[in-house]
User: Which sequence fits this backbone?
């Protein structure tokens, strides 16, 4: 994804208009719009300011060598959407964590199934004993 595309997408996710961005950057709306369309080269200082406004890491914004995935997540505190930029390495790490969590959950489910089977067996034995006691009392 090109830098100007990341900028536009992150701005939209943050719920900011081009007018608000231009105001915060002290430039005209048309000059800011050219940035988002990729029609102008942006100096590092401007990119840093854009990154600050849309609250993403400058390195993630300008990094074109790594694949970036944009996850849009709802912010639980103010119910606005926020952007989280994850590199391929971070995604792989998160995926590995998820696999370990699933594996642990599956082990817990297996243990619980064993306990349920033991309890069912014990319950069946108790019911048999209760029936024998009931028969002997009659």
Assistant:
């Amino acid at each position: 994804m090109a830098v100007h595309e990341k900028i536009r997408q992150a701005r939209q996710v943050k719920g900011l208009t081009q007018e608000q961005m231009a105001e915060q950057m002290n430039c005209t709306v048309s000059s800011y719009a050219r940035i988002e369309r990729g029609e102008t080269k942006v100096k590092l200082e401007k990119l840093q300011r854009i990154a600050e406004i849309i609250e993403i890491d400058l390195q993630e914004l300008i990094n074109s060598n790594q694949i970036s995935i944009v996850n849009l997540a709802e912010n639980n505190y103010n119910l606005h959407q926020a952007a989280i930029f994850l590199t391929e390495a971070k995604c792989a790490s998160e995926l590995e964590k998820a696999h370990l969590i699933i594996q642990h959950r599956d082990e817990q489910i297996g243990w619980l199934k064993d306990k349920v089977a033991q309890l069912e067996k014990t319950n069946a034995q108790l019911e048999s004993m209760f029936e024998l006691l009931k028969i002997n009392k009659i």
Observations:
- The first helix runs from residue 3 to 14.
